[in-house]
TrEMBL record:
It comes from the Bacteria. InterPro entries: Lfuc_symporter_FucP, MFS, MFS_trans_sf, MFS_TsgA-like. It is found in: Cell inner membrane. This is L-fucose:H+ symporter permease. The keyword Transmembrane helix applies. The chain crosses the membrane at residues 12-32, 52-73, 80-97, 103-122, 143-166, 197-217, 249-274, 286-304, 311-329, 335-358, 370-391, 397-416. Keywords: Cell membrane, Membrane, Transmembrane, Transmembrane helix. It is a multi-pass membrane protein. It comes from Alteromonas gracilis. PANTHER family: L-FUCOSE-PROTON SYMPORTER (PTHR43702:SF11). Pfam families: MFS_1.
């Protein structure tokens, strides 16, 4: 049955547009960061596991800052949370300049942590903010529409990395770098890190402009906030959420979904280079194709959800993604690369769909529930470390069993939600039938 509930009203259109820019912004940041694993591995001559600390710092910050974001949202408002997140993200992006001057890997990780911490607050606030801008019936579709602009950012992020960072990497091998003099090596690394710094500082300037625009407009919704710190009561909300099986499984599904997505995209360049040869630039082009597929598919999936229940679509696409990962491990060639790119079509609906169905019916616990789902982004910090360890020991091709397992578990959540909804419908039908029978007996009497 087609869902005709309106997505966005005239009153909320401008705030909705500004928030979609925020969705694009964290897409830029996330997908400029994915190639940095390969970039830092080359610049600082590190193993895949060591360079994967980039993702650990980035997604670990999401985990650490989500609960503070929930506190901000409950005590103040979603708008305050959005502004706080934008400010922190801009500060982290600006830190890339001093990091490039010190030429220290740890400084870059710290800058990424601050940047991602701001984005964690931003995402924890913006997702439920969008869902609240209209009917609850259309909330999941509305979030999918807003999230459809996230791939616009991911494409821009990959494009910036492919044009401003990857081409400026010195092609000297680890052995050739080891043979350079200290001064020569410092000059090479300095030029490479300047290339890394430039797009991040540019993004910081854009984030400041978005911050000003959102600060100047009136909040489009009336939301209940706590009048004092004591009234926030995160503990009571947390107990209710932990007891909610549907929400609890949603957090786990989001953990494995983000882990799978990060694994797939982080090591796309390495897989493409192994399967087809070439260098980081040609591998970056494959990643760009993946982002284009992701972008187009997000809009397509939003349209399909008018006709197909979101959880069913989630289950189907998760199983397809798992099959594609398995195929990649058996065919490390052009066909495997095509399968790798195709996974992005399956990924396109997963995050907002899990987010939307996990938050259904949470009421006053929605703000903390949103934080829990953002904390689940920790999967993007942990699971790539497992894949990187497999890469160092067995190669990048076989390592794609890690996202394959993740996709299977995500599909399981889609099946669970379908069963849960079917049970609710069956119970409602039973209650309605019993009520009708009682009414008929009353009339007979």
């Amino acid at each position: 049955m087609k869902n005709n509930a309106p997505l966005v009203s005239k009153d909320t259109l401008l705030p909705f547009i500004l928030l979609t820019i925020c969705f694009a912004a964290w897409g830029v940041a996330a997908n400029m960061t994915d190639p940095l694993v390969k970039v830092f591995s080359k610049i600082f001559t590190m193993s895949s596991l060591q360079s994967a600390l980039v993702q650990f710092a980035y997604y670990g910050a999401y985990f650490c800052l989500a609960i503070p974001a929930a506190f901000i949202n409950k005590r103040f408002s979603y708008k305050t949370g959005v502004l706080t997140g934008l400010g922190c993200a801009a500060a982290g992006a600006f830190l890339f300049y001093p990091a490039s001057q010190t030429m220290t890997y740890g400084f870059f990780l710290a800058a990424l942590f601050v940047l991602a911490g701001g984005l964690s607050i931003l995402e924890t606030s913006a997702n439920p903010y969008v869902m609240a801008m209209g009917s609850e019936k259309s909330a999941t579709r509305r979030l999918n529409l807003a999230q459809a602009f996230n791939p616009v950012g991911t494409n821009l992020g990959v494009f910036l990395a492919a044009t401003l960072i990857l081409p400026n990497l010195n092609q000297a091998s680890a052995e050739e770098r080891a043979a350079m003099s200290v001064g020569e090596l410092k000059s090479v690394i300095g030029a490479e890190l300047d290339a890394v710094m430039l797009p991040y500082v540019g993004m910081a300037c854009v984030l400041v402009l978005v911050w000003v625009a959102i600060a100047l407009i009136k909040a489009p919704i009336q939301e209940s906030v706590e009048t004092s710190v004591e009234d926030v009561k995160l503990g009571a909300s947390l107990k209710r959420l932990v007891a909610n099986k549907h929400y609890r499984f949603g957090v786990l599904a989001q953990f494995f979904n983000v882990g799978a997505q990060t694994c797939v995209w982080t090591f796309t360049i390495q897989y493409a280079m192994t399967a087809m040869g070439g260098n980081e630039v040609s591998g970056g082009e494959i990643l760009q194709y993946s982002m284009i597929v992701f972008l187009i598919s997000r809009f397509v999936m939003t349209w399909v959800m008018q006709y197909l229940y979101p959880a069913r679509l989630l289950m189907i696409m998760s199983l397809i993604a798992m099959a594609l990962c398995i195929f990649m491990t058996q065919s490390p060639n052009l066909a495997g690369v095509i399968a790798l790119v195709s996974i992005s079509a399956c990924l396109s609906l997963m995050f907002p769909t899990i987010y939307g169905i996990a938050l259904e019916g949470l009421g006053e616990d929605t703000k903390l529930g949103a934080a829990g789902l953002v904390m689940a982004i920790l999967g993007g910090a942990i699971l790539p470390l497992f894949q990187a360890a497999i890469i160092d020991s067995a190669g990048v091709v076989i390592s794609y069993v890690v996202p394959a397992i993740c996709f299977l578990l995500v599909g399981g959540y889609g099946y669970f939600d379908m069963r849960a909804k079917k049970g609710c419908v069956d119970n409602k039908s039973k209650v309605d039938a019993e009520a009708l029978k009682d009414m008929e007996m009353g009339i007979a009497k």
